[in-house]
Amino acid sequence: MQLSDMILVSLDDHLVEPPETFADVPAGLKGVAPRIVERNGAESWVYEDRVLPNIANNAVVGRPPEEFGFEPTAYSQLREATYNPNKRVEDMNADGVCTSTCYPSAVGPSGQLFADAKDKKSALALLEYYNDWLIDSWCASNPGRFIPLGIVPLWDAELAAKEAKRLARKGARTISLHDNFSAKGVPSIHTGYWDPLFKVMEEERLVISAHIGTGNQAPHASPETPIDAWIATMPMSIAIAAADWLFSPVFKKFPNLKIALAEGGVGWVPYLLERIEFTYNHHRAWTHSDFGGKTPSEVFFNHFITCFISDDFGMKNIDSLNPDMVCWECDYPHSDSVWPKSPEALWESVKHLGKETIDKISHLNTIREFRFDPREILGRENCTVGALRAKATHVDTRLVAGRGGFDPKASAEKRPVTSADIQKLFTSAL
Questions:
Q1: How confident is the model at residue 41, as a pLDDT?
Q2: pLDDT score at 86
Q3: Cβ atoms within 10 Å, residue 52
Q4: Is the whole-model pTM more than 0.85?
Q5: CATH number given to 3-28+91-395
Q6: For position 40, what pLDDT does the model report?
Q7: In Å, what is the CA distance from 262 to each residue of 138, 179, 214?
Q8: How many CA atoms lie within 13 A of 192 on its CB side?
């Protein structure tokens, strides 16, 4: 098998909502829908009384590494493929990526913008409109290239279940949920409150997509800590959510439900499971943990889908994982993405493996679990890295410097960028 023979289906990417996303809302929502405002050359989404400080968190694809920290403050500073699905497909072709799962940005990966709304009636209508736009406009623009994902009203379990059923009828394959519900001020997964939602998702075979940062926030050790420390440990922060879901009653109640841990990597999983097995065997006499006659690892491997960008350690220790539940991701357009060299990065991690295992990781596992097979739509011969790149010779993938944006240091001082510098990007309004 050669690099060019791989088929890449990404479990985790992100879209940036174009300025006209809410342009076609019904007349009754015109005055309350999120809108773009411009001040002093910068653009922001405004919803109710909130001004979102960034239009596209970390959407720095196409910049040189020296400018990864510059947070875009206008659409002119973005690569067009971040918010234009047709251009996105061109960038996917250039990267040899066949199919992508795109999480929202402005409304939050799991729709928190609407959950925080004061007017929940309008918020529900806007959320439904957004889902229609996401599936009928973004995903449908290029059949076979985007796995339909949706969000649900995570302030009411019954409403969430109703929207999940509607989304399933529209062709959604996964729903983005908080990795930790309790962290968002709603009942936890241990209470049974969300069982109506999980019941619908199991019945409709909708995968739970739990993206890092949707509930638990990766902690900053201190304001003075170099931001490198936070970036390095960020993927592993989802381990907290993984343990929480694993020890919850969810998968005993809903034995066919699956959960994807998006943007979390895989190298840490073997030790987490080793630690959980020790905890279970050593402490269950007093903690009363119950995995329904199975071991914690068995439950994890049956229900948890993991993904990685490049993970040499994880792929060298694939026998300590479940090769049938490990998937690949691109993370376009974030700074961790290695676009347009994704195939090269993945190949370095997996080239020692057999073709069967490489195929599972690169596309077959995602195709099976998300019930979305681009080969049936596009033809297998058109889905490979080599075939897609042959269609993209016109795409300019050169890095472009000087796009602008919010400088995390905003000074000539020569010192490491710190957690405090980066946190300003997400707390400073226009």
A1: 82
A2: 98
A3: 20
A4: yes
A5: 3.20.20.140
A6: 81
A7: 20, 10, 10
A8: 1
Report the pLDDT value the prediction gives residue 430, as an integer from 0 to 100. 39
Domain ranges of the chain: 3-28+91-395
Grouped pLDDT means (10 residues each) for the chain, 430 residues: 98 98 96 93 92 89 94 95 98 99 97 97 98 98 98 98 98 98 98 98 98 94 94 94 98 98 97 98 97 96 97 96 98 98 98 98 98 98 98 98 84 76 62
User: Can you give the pLDDT at residue 429?
Assistant: 39
Chain centroid to Cα 270, Å, comes to: 22
- 50: tokens are 């909130």
Extract the tokens encoding 368: 């099976």
CA–CA distance, 276 with 285 (Å, rounded to integer): 14
Kindly report the three-state secondary structure assignment for every residue of the chain: CCHHHCEEEEEEEECCCCCCCCCCCCHHHCCCCCEEEEECCEEEEEECCEECCCCCCCCCCCCCHHHCCCECCCHHHCCHHHCCHHHHHHHHHHCCEEEEEEECCCCCCCCHHHHCCCCHHHHHHHHHHHHHHHHHHHHHHCCCCECCEECCCCCCHHHHHHHHHHHHHHCCCEEEECCCCHHHCCCCCCCCCCHHHHHHHHHHCCEEEEECCCCCCCCCCCCCCEHHHHHHHCHHHHHHHHHHHHCCCHHHHCCCCCEEEECCCCCCHHHHHHHHHHHHHHHHHHHCCCCCCCCHHHHHHHHEEEEECCCHHHHHCHHHCCCCCEEECCCCCCCCCCCCCHHHHHHHHHCCCCHHHHHHHHHHHHHHHHCCCHHHHHCHHHCEHHHHHHCCCCCCCCCCCCCCCECCCCCCCCCCCEHHHHHHHCCCCC
